[in-house]
Amino acid sequence: MSDLTKLTLKGAIDGLKAKSFSAVEVAKAHLDAIAAANPAINAYIQTTPDQALAMAKASDERIAKGEAGPLEGAAIGIKDLFCTKGVQSAAASNILRGFKPPYESTVTSQLWRDGAVMLGKLNMDEFAMGSSNESSAFGPVVNPWRAKDSSQNLTPGGSSGGSAAAVAADLCLAATATDTGGSIRQPAAFTGTVGIKPTYGRCSRFGIVAFASSLDQAGPIGKTVEDTALMLRSMSGHDPKDSTSLPVEVPDFAAFVGKSVKGLKIGVPGDYRIEGMPEEIARLWDQGIEWLKAAGCEIKSIRLPHTKYALPAYYIIAPAEASSNLARYDGMRFGLREEGGNLTEVYENTRAKGFGPEVKRRILIGTYVLSAGYYDAYYLKALKVRRRIADDFEAAFKEVDAILTPTAPSAAFPLGQRNDDPIAMYLNDVFTVTTNLAGLPGLSLPAGTSQTGLPLGLQLIGKPLDEGTLFSLAGAMEQAAGVSAKPAKWW
Amino acid sequence: MAIDAATVRRVAKLARIAEPEERLEPLARELSAIISFIEQLDEVNTDGVEPMTSAVHVTLPMREDVVADGGDAERVLLNAPKSDQGFFVVPKVVE
Amino acid sequence: MSERPPYRIQGRTGEWEVVLGLEVHAQVASKAKLFSAAGTGFGAAPNDHVSLVDAGFPGMLPVINRFCVEQAVKTGLGLKAKINHRSIFDRKNYFYPDLPQGYQISQFKDPIVGEGELIVHHDDGTSFTVGIERLHLEQDAGKSIHDMDPNATYVDLNRSGVALMEIVSRPDMRSPDEAAAYVKTLRQLVRYMGTCDGDMEKGNLRADVNVSVRKPGAELGTRCEIKNVNSLRFIQQAIVYEAHRQIEVIEDGGKIVQETRLFDAGKGETRSMRSKEEAHDYRYFPDPDLLPLVLDPVWVKQIQATLPELPEQKLARMQSQYGLSAYDAAVLVGDVARADFFEEAAKGRDAKLVANWVLNDLSGKMGADGLEFEASPVSAADIGALVGLITDGTISGKIAREVFERMWAGEGAPAAIVEKHGLVQVTDTGALEAAIDEIMAANPDKVESAKEKPQAIGWFVGQVMKATGGKANPGAVNQILKAKLGL
Ligand SMILES: [Mg+2]
Ligand SMILES: [Zn+2]
User: Fold this and answer.
1) Distance CA A232, CA A216 (A)
2) C462 vs A87: which has the higher pLDDT
3) Domains in chain C, please, with CATH?
4) Burial of C299 (0-12, 13-18, 19+ CB in 10 A)
5) Nearest Cβ partner of B53 from C63, C145, C286?
6) How many CB pairs under 8 A join A and B?
7) What class is the A2-262 domain?
8) How far apart are CA A308 and CA A305, in angstroms?
9) How far is CA A78 from the centre of its chain?
10) Digit-coded pLDDT (tens) for C396-453
11) Is the minimum CB–CB distance between C152 and chain B shorter than 8 Å?
């Protein structure tokens, strides 16, 4: 039997259906791989082997009875931000360490409904706040990729760094992730994987620990475009428990992969050509344009003039919402409680001890911008700029079917390198955050490598609910790029 | 606008996060840097622009008035740091 | 405005006027909570009516209850207020152990109901108008219990997330009496519409009272807010105490500090709530878990069409349709069930007489037994029938009392009781003449004195009634007696 962890999600599902191997074998292969790799990569906060094997066994029984679901037997990893019943769901924070929710998130429950098997909980930045996975209370994730001739540990990106690293290192067939400002796409770009943040409202937020409610969206990270399409189909769908969930049908996203993209109009925004963009990123972008041209797309230059204000607006809106969303972590009903001389001290000590520095920084910023006298100058202003950014896209999409940009302004950087400068860290999201503000779908796919041999990604941005077109375009580019390189195993 | 130590103290109090005195100055510097980054927004003309609070264009869905939850205090208290006789037990509140 | 004399408090430096505005929290009479499907029933075991949404668990999200929205619209229509077809839910952020999310979902800038008014009636029939500033929907908090453990507070989240309508008045009241009458009238309105049960004892309707004082005609003074006063009597006591306290502070050269105060019913005092005072900055912002609440105009029209007759309208109709006094009408309107009972009984009867029976005899009995009109042991139809027997002369008012007693005791319909006990009034002049002749013959001295003093006729009437077991028609007896005595 060849190494089952090397399979794509699609390959595994097909093999399981053909009974070439069993779901238990797939789960075991992955659990073994995790056991070997995790001490070095730290992608998983915990594995759930008993649950994985029990779920796999049940999958095998359903396959035997001919009752296989669309993801039957597929061994996947779940970002720690998703609440999973009876399994620690800590959002990688000390304040929730040991918290076992008595409920399941809608997204994960749909994955289990469709036959997926849970391997464990994936590491991430604390409360999904970060772009390097270093804010996790469970230690940083290490990128399975290393620069040519280097043994320096690199970041897998964040906040879904565990998800991306696990997929890249074959520690799961696919993974769930979430994206508030780029947390699916930037780590996908840093690890040579595919990630999509769907349209806001596509996936239910019920049972996902909230960071910034108006921006948070769940999505998958996978090894191929088709794999992410398969995952997204199971993760999506209207949920009456989430008031912002869209009451729309879920298309068969995988059916869009391989469809001709001839005649599609692709926008290339000059406003994304930011100052100091590394040459290799610019070249990659041009390469992407060429591939799409070759596939029969029409390339159009477009303007998205408020792009440069997306990050500042984001760093008002997201912390403001977060400061309120994280008020419930107060030591009263669940999670950490630190002692104190009175109630206020208990609150203050609990939250001081339970939250890491980046989370505290964002809570303080968010509290400040909402506080009396500053609301109009900061928060309200940011909401208006947000509207202008959304209007830019709306105007652009009158002329084009999708937009092509780089995913991140650089390749994966060394762990520890940008920790002292929050703004330098925030700049990682400069290309991705706009779609969160506008609620649009964005997909990142590996498109090439840097001079030092690290993966680089390109981003496709689509119209609301038009993930299908993104999958078609990404499928065409994936073929043209022919990127199938995996990180050399050093762990 | 730069944030000073006193503002950090006030905001930390509002957010119920204990910040030791010696952290206030460094935090004030960090937060001021972020605030000045944010203040780029002043360049944008937003006259007459409707603030955007959500990326969803539908209106608020409503549910029917049906009792379909609750009735399981044990589940609610399961993760409580302290509980007694069905209540959450918290530090003494002085009114 | 009231025609009553203005309420004034005599201070050392002269007379003071009290200015009052109220924020009433009325619990929506829904089965489930505003944003969760947990129940709202009273008296459950601690934390039994709690969903993980109410307890603020990670990843839990609010979904609004349509019925609660409908009740807010209904109440708004009852207050003749502007219904806002687009309203926003905001988060009011503060830390408190009985506020699990760390914020209350409320409506700040764009409430569901805008300006309206309420005509308030005093018991004596005078009335005045109070402006309504707004009505908004919000969540209730849980309950903190401070006396179960000397070193800890116990928290029950059963109320957490229950729907409240906060109804904010303009500062249009000028006396403790007016404040109480306002709450009473508002309570009556929501009970009429069925949007809130108005049960103040259970805390389902409670008031925050904003009190300020000023020299009559002067600028508005600084106000203090007395939180959560839950009875009409306490509202009045709290206002009187607080007004005097403020006057004393000012007259001593001090300044009133705007603050939240608590009414201690045991001591009859208000005191500063230190815990809620520090760092007052609620950082309101639109709740990103919820979208704008948009009301379909057709739905609002439908709600309007189903509004019941409101107390104000009923009061006017009771007077015009039945010729009742303002006082009687007000007492009837004070209790929908009683008003309905009256109207049922008054069908085709002498309405004033029916009102007397309902308001005096029946209300007296019910009150003594602590019964509500919904549970009256005597039916409205039977009260109507009883009045019918009086007006058609079948029985006298006196006999009617006896019949009523038997009806109350469960003997059945009045006609059957009259029949069974032979209580029909004797109007047969032959029989009455025979009885009168007998009495006159036996009492010649009385006959003589009656001829001189006509008022002594009453003695004869009494004797006839006695002889006939009270069944004689008093009118007929009088007529025959007068003829026989030559008066
Ligand atoms: Mg209020
Ligand atoms: Zn309120």
Assistant:
1) 15
2) A87
3) 8-304 (no CATH), 309-420 (no CATH), 429-485 (1.10.10.410)
4) middle
5) C286
6) 166
7) alpha beta
8) 8
9) 11
10) 888 899 999 999 999 999 999 988 887 777 777 778 888 888 888 888 888 888 888 8
11) yes
Instruction: Give distance in angstroms: CA of C393 to centre of ligand 1.
Output: 60
pTM here?
0.91
- Where would I find the beta strands (DSSP E) of A92-199? 117-122, 174-179, 194-197
Q: Residues A204-257: pLDDT tens digits? A: 999 999 999 999 999 999 999 999 999 999 999 999 999 999 999 999 999 999
Q: Does A49 touch chain B (CB under 8 A)?
A: no
List the single residue in B with minimal CA-CA distance to A245. B56
What is the structure's pLDDT at C2?
42
Interface of A with B in 416-475 (CB under 8 A): 422-423, 426, 437-440
Give me the helix-helix angle, B21-38 and A357-370, nearest 10°. Answer: 60
Query: What distance in Å separates the CA atoms of residue B78 and residue B92, rounded to the nearest whole number?
Result: 21
| pLDDT value for B95 | 67
Q: Which chain B residues are closer than 8 Å to C36 by Cβ?
A: 69-70
Q: How confident is the model at residue C431, as a pLDDT?
A: 80
> Which of B60, B73, B94 has its CB closest to that of C275?
B94
Q: Give the whole-angstrom CA distance, residue A348 versus residue A339.
A: 10
Q: Is residue C30 within 8 angstroms of chain B, CB to CB?
A: yes
Q: What's the pLDDT score for residue C1? A: 40
Q: In the predicted model, is pLDDT for residue C276 greater than 60?
A: no
Which residues, in sequence order, are CB contacts of C165 under 8 Å at separation 6+?
C25, C26, C27, C28, C71, C72, C75, C135, C136, C137, C190, C195, C196
Ligand 1 center to C23 CA (angstroms): 6
pLDDT tens across C56-109, in order? 999 999 999 999 999 999 999 999 999 999 999 999 999 999 999 999 999 999
Mark yes or no for CB contact B17/A351 under 8 Å.
yes
Hey, is the C-beta of A347 within 8 angstroms of any chain B C-beta?
yes
Reply yes or no on whether A163 is catalytic: no
Domain spans in chain B, listed from the N-terminal domain onward: 5-43
Long-range CB contacts (< 8 A, 24+ apart) of A343-350? Answer: A343/B90, A343/B91, A343/B92, A343/B93, A343/B94, A343/C97, A343/C153, A344/B16, A345/B18, A346/B90, A346/B91, A347/B16, A347/C95, A348/B12, A348/B13, A348/B16, A348/B17, A348/B18, A349/B18, A350/A95
Judge whether A79 counts as a catalytic residue: yes
Check pLDDT > 60 for residue A1.
Answer: no
Secondary element (H or E) of residue A45: strand A44-47
Q: What residues in B contact C63, CB-CB < 8 Å?
A: 61-63
For residues A277, A279, A283, A286, the Cα torsion angle rounded to the nearest 10 degrees is 40
Q: A79, A91 in Cβ contact below 8 A?
A: no
Could you give the 3-state DSSP secondary structure of residue A221?
strand
